Amino acid sequence: MDFDAVYNWILTGGMGVIGFFLKHFFDKLNSCASKQQVQELQAKLDRADDKYASKSELDELKKSIEKMESNIDFLKENTVRSNDFVRTMTRLETKLDDMRRG
Question: How many percent of the chain have pLDDT more than 90?
Answer without folding.
Answer: 35
